[in-house]
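User: Please predict structures.

Assistant: First:
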Amino acid sequence: MTAAEIEAKAKEIKRMVIRTVTGAKGGHVGTSLSEVDILATLYFGVLNLDPAHPDLVDRDRFILSKGHGSEGLYCSLAAKGFFPREVLGTYLRHDCPLTIHPTRHVPGVEMNTGALGHGFSNAVGVALSARLRKRGYRAFVLTGDGELQEGSNWEAAMSAAHFELGNLTVIVDNNGLQLSDRVDRTMRIEPLDEKFRSFGFDVHKVDGHSVPELLGILSALDYGGKKPHAIIARTTKGKGVSFMEGVPEWHHRVPTPEEGERALKELEL
């Protein structure tokens, strides 16, 4: 897809997120809206995947380490064709595979996530496995910035550089907010670019809501080289909905039906 087509797809996915969370009366709408432009760029412009054959050996692997952003992932997978869009209407129902955090019961989900700090380490293992097996697939992982307060991420970064995993890309959803406050007031993690660079990463800072910028960077990386890649994507929590943007409360607050309708109208502009 072109950048313009991906932008249109991202807006569609954001509307799907609003409907899914509002209908289920549960979820994490703010963090899902934060990540959608990144996910749309990956699924419709970067990742080598076939929804009709989700278990192909040489498929690229994507891991959503910030598992509380499951609605953004589920809606992206449905938009890509991994399962019918109607299934989104069963989100959080009893015995439905679409749980609050993603699991491998859902087509297209590579790893159960939700316990923060684990996805990055697993992505390192995936990338290392590809190298050892002499396969061409790549590993991509999306982390939250608050999640990087977990020390296991930095052990993963050290390992990725040590094993020269150029086929690994970590993308940081750098929206500056976590559960109930700002990241820098909870535990400072900046400067992230300097930290990743000191660990031996190829580092890029981008606008996480600019599809052309994301697509340009992700298409130009040297995946066959020796340096793992870190994309620090500056984002806004609740992106696209004026009353949600940058408000910590929308980490876990669920829109009322009236707020859901208002959000949908804003996302149609």
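Second:
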Amino acid sequence: MKAPDICLKGERVTIRPLTRQDLRTMSKWPSFDDPLYRLFDWPKRSELSDDLWFYQLVRDKSRIYFAVDNEHGELIGRLSLRDIRRRTSARLGIGFGAQYVSQGYGTEALQLFLRYYFQEMHFERMVLDVAAVNVRAVRCYERCGFKRVDEHYQYAGSDGDVAFLDQPAYEHLRHFFRRDRYRNTVLAYDMELRRKDWLAEQALAK
């Protein structure tokens, strides 16, 4: 689905519709240095694949993508809504380039977007799932008011993608991963934030 023609401005971030050119920029983002976070890299695709992906996106009524720029006008991340159920709920997706994480951009962008999501789009609930090992993201969601409601296992890549677990530095994370028949999976938390709870938090913050 084509994103609404919005321009949400925060102190350091701006949220706007995702464009075809943004895909080229994201494809040039460097991978994370930490092999754990490489599981969350934006996929590297050809220009033709990007064309097809974007063509399908604008025609898919169950998905909307937004771009996030920093205070210098650089594309630093993206937000998405999937599984859109009219004005009832949607599933959040969020990702930032490796060079832009751990700088508070994600929390600021999400807080800014939540205001638009609940007040302008009038949704009643936002849901998401996040890998339990992505501690940085889990903390961001909790700061924004999300609560854990369930958990499940999701695909975690090939054997090569999770080979880092054999290193002593990552031994403490092994219990989050398991082999599900022919696939590697990782524990994920199901989280949600309800409009009434978000509104209550906003009232307390005043």
